[in-house]
C-alpha cells in the first residue's frame, strides 16, 4: 500500500510550475519546484533577507547590500548545473529525487547563519571553545555523548552549569550526533552545524517530512556540514563548490568591481569527479580543456579578496564589530551558542531565532550608544566597556578606525616574521609601544591576515585564525594529458604554478583617531631608536 510520502513523490519531481521562478540579478531566472517555494516562504528562510552577505562592507562599497537570501537561491541554481554536468559524465545517477535533495542542500546551506555573517560567528565559536575547554573534567563526554532528558531554561550559568546544560540539550545532541567527524574541533557553533538545528526543529522539518524520510532529511544536513563521505558533499564543500562560485560572482557584481568575475559555465562544463584523486582533495577536478578557466577563477578570487574583502577600512569596521559582539556576549547582552540552543530546545521561543538578524544587532549597538544598556568592567571581561561604547558610536556614525600603519605583501609561506610583524604579534613589543605612547592598550588594535593565494577563505577575516574546517589546504585538481586528476599548482604551464608557495600577508595597526595615531607613530620611532 503506497504511503503518503510515496504519493508525494509520484509527480514529475522537477516539474517547475509557470509561477515558480525568481529573477536573480546574477543568474537570471531561476526555476523552482513546489517544495523549494514552500521552504523559501518559511520564516526561517525569510530571515536570511535580513542578514547581509558581507557584513559591514556596504559602508565602503554602498552596493554591497545583498543578503544570504539571494546567495542561497543562487547556490541552489549552481548546484543543479553542477549535478547536470556530472550526470553527463556518469556520476550522481541516483534519480531525480536525489537531484532534488542536492538542490535543497544548496538552498538551505546558509539557513543557520549568524547576523553580519562570519563576523559574529567567529566570536561565538571561540567563546564556546573557550567555555568547553574550561570544563572541570578530562573526559570528552560533552563531545560524544549526552542525555536527551530535559531542555534549556538558563543562559547565564557558571561553566559547570553550562556543561550540564549541553549534556541535557536535545538540540546539542542532534548537532553532535549528526556531525561526529567535526566534533573534536569543538566547532558546534558553526553556522553549517546550526543549519541542522533549523532543519530539524522548525517548520522546515514539517515540509520536508511530507516527502522525505528522517534519514534523507539528515542527509541534507550532513551535505551542508560536509559530514557525509560522498561525492554529494563536494558540491558545497570543496575548492570547486557552488557556494564559492556564487559568492564570488555575486560579491563582484554587488560591490561594482570586475575582479571576481570568471567563466562559470566553462568550469562547470568541464567538471568531473574521480575516486582516485589525491588524498585530502574533494575528488572534483576540471578536465584539461577547462584549466585556463580554473586559473582565471583562482586569480579572480585573489584579486577580489585583496582589493575588496581585505580593503583596509572594511577590516577596521569588522574589527570593531568583532570587539562589540565579544564584549556584549561575555556580559550576557547578546546571544551565545547556549542561547541559540535555547531557541530550538523544548521551552524555547523560536520567534527569537527569527529575529536573530542584522537588525537586532544594530538595535543592540544603538542601545549601547544611547546609554540604554549599561556596561560594567571587571576582571572576567576581556573587552573594556569604554572601548565597546566607542566602537558602537563609530559603527552608528560610520566613523572608521584610524589606520596607523599597513603593510600588504606576497610572501613565501615559510618566510619568517619581519620587524613590522613584531608590532602586530609580539606582546612584549606591543606593551612597550603602548607605554611609550601613553594610551590605553585597548586602542592599539593590531591586525594580521595571511591567506594562501591558491586557497583563500570564504569568510571576512578578523585575524589569522581560521574557524572553518573545510578551508584546509586542499588544492584544486585539473586533468592532465590523459584527463587524470593532478593538482593545478603542479602544472608548469600555468601562472598559478608560480604562486603555489605564496601567501598574501596583510599586517596593520588601527587606533581611535588622528591624535592616537600620532602618539603610536612617535612611540614606534622611539622604540626603533632605542633598539
Overall mean pLDDT stands at 88
Percent in strands: 5-15%
Structural class: alpha+beta
By CATH reckoning, the class of one domain would read: Mainly Alpha
* Spatial order of strands in the largest sheet: 3-4-7-8
Describe how the helices and strands are arranged.
Blueprint: H1 4-9, E1 21-24, E2 28-31, H2 34-40, H3 43-46, H4 68-88, H5 96-108, H6 118-133, H7 141-144, H8 159-168, H9 170-178, H10 191-201, H11 203-209, H12 214-225, H13 242-255, H14 264-269, E3 271-273, E4 284-286, H15 291-309, H16 312-330, H17 337-344, H18 350-354, H19 358-370, H20 385-397, E5 402-412, H21 419-425, H22 427-437, E6 445-452, E7 477-479, E8 485-487, E9 502-511, H23 514-530
Parallel strand pairs: 4-7
Antiparallel strand pairs: 1-2, 3-4, 5-9, 6-9, 7-8
Short structural description:
The protein has helices at 4-9, 34-40, 43-46, 68-88, 96-108, 118-133, 141-144, 159-168, 170-178, 191-201, 203-209, 214-225, 242-255, 264-269, 291-309, 312-330, 337-344, 350-354, 358-370, 385-397, 419-425, 427-437, 514-530, and strands spanning 21-24, 28-31, 271-273, 284-286, 402-412, 445-452, 477-479, 485-487, 502-511. It is of the alpha+beta class and 531 residues long. It has a domain at 38-400: Hypothetical protein af1432, CATH 1.10.3210.
Amino acid at each position: 500500500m503506497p504511503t503518503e510520502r510515496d504519493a508525494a513523490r509520484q509527480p514529475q519531481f522537477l516539474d517547475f510550475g509557470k509561477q515558480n521562478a525568481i529573477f536573480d540579478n546574477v543568474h537570471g531566472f531561476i526555476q523552482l519546484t513546489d517544495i523549494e517555494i514552500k521552504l523559501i516562504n518559511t520564516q526561517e528562510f525569510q530571515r536570511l533577507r535580513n542578514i547581509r552577505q558581507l557584513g559591514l562592507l556596504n559602508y565602503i562599497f554602498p552596493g554591497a547590500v545583498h543578503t544570504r537570501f539571494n546567495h542561497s537561491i543562487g547556490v541552489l541554481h549552481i548546484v543543479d548545473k553542477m549535478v547536470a554536468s556530472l550526470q553527463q559524465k556518469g556520476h550522481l545517477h541516483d534519480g531525480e529525487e536525489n537531484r532534488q535533495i542536492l538542490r535543497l542542500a544548496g538552498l538551505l546551506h546558509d539557513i543557520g547563519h549568524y547576523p553580519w555573517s562570519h563576523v559574529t560567528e567567529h566570536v561565538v565559536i571561540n567563546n564556546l571553545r573557550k567555555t568547553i575547554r574550561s570544563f572541570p573534567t578530562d573526559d570528552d563526554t560533552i563531545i560524544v555523548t549526552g542525555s536527551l532528558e530535559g531542555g534549556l531554561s538558563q543562559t547565564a550559568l557558571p561553566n559547570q552549569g553550562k556543561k550540564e546544560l549541553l549534556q541535557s540539550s536535545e538540540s546539542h545532541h542532534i548537532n553532535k550526533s549528526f556531525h561526529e567527524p567535526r566534533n573534536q574541533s569543538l566547532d558546534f557553533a558553526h553556522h553549517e552545524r546550526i543549519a541542522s538545528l533549523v532543519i530539524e526543529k522548525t517548520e522546515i522539518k514539517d515540509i520536508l517530512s511530507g516527502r522525505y524520510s528522517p534519514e534523507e532529511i539528515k542527509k541534507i544536513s550532513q551535505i551542508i556540514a560536509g559530514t557525509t563521505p560522498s561525492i554529494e558533499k563536494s558540491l558545497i564543500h570543496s575548492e570547486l563548490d557552488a557556494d564559492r562560485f556564487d559568492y564570488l560572482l555575486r560579491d563582484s557584481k554587488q560591490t561594482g568591481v570586475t575582479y571576481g568575475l570568471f567563466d562559470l559555465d566553462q568550469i562547470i562544463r568541464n567538471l568531473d569527479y574521480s575516486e582516485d584523486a589525491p588524498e585530502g582533495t574533494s575528488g572534483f577536478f576540471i578536465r584539461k580543456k577547462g584549466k585556463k578557466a580554473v586559473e582565471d577563477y583562482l586569480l579572480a578570487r585573489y584579486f577580489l579578496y585583496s582589493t575588496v574583502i581585505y580593503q583596509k577600512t572594511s577590516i577596521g569596521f569588522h574589527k570593531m564589530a568583532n570587539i562589540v559582539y565579544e564584549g556584549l556576549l561575555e556580559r550576557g547582552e547578546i546571544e551565545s551558542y547556549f542561547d541559540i540552543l535555547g531557541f530550538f530546545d523544548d521551552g524555547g521561543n523560536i520567534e527569537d531565532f527569527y529575529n536573530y538578524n542584522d537588525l537586532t544587532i544594530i538595535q543592540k549597538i544603538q542601545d549601547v550608544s544611547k546609554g540604554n544598556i549599561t556596561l560594567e568592567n571587571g576582571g572576567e571581561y576581556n573587552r573594556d566597556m569604554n572601548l565597546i561604547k566607542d566602537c558602537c558610536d563609530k559603527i552608528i556614525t560610520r566613523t572608521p578606525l584610524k589606520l596607523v600603519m599597513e603593510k600588504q605583501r606576497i610572501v613565501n609561506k615559510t618566510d619568517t616574521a619581519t620587524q613590522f610583524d613584531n608590532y602586530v604579534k609580539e606582546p612584549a613589543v606591543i606593551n612597550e609601544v603602548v607605554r611609550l605612547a601613553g594610551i590605553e592598550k585597548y586602542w592599539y588594535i593590531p591586525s594580521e591576515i595571511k591567506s594562501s593565494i591558491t586557497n583563500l577563505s570564504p569568510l571576512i577575516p578578523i585575524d589569522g585564525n581560521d574557524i572553518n574546517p573545510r578551508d584546509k589546504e586542499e588544492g584544486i585538481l585539473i586533468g592532465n594529458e590523459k584527463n587524470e586528476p593532478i593538482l593545478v599548482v603542479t602544472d608548469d604551464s600555468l601562472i598559478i604554478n608560480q604562486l603555489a608557495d605564496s601567501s598574501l600577508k596583510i599586517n596593520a595597526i588601527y587606533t581611535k583617531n588622528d591624535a592616537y595615531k600620532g602618539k603610536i607613530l612617535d612611540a614606534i620611532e622611539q622604540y626603533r631608536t632605542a633598539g
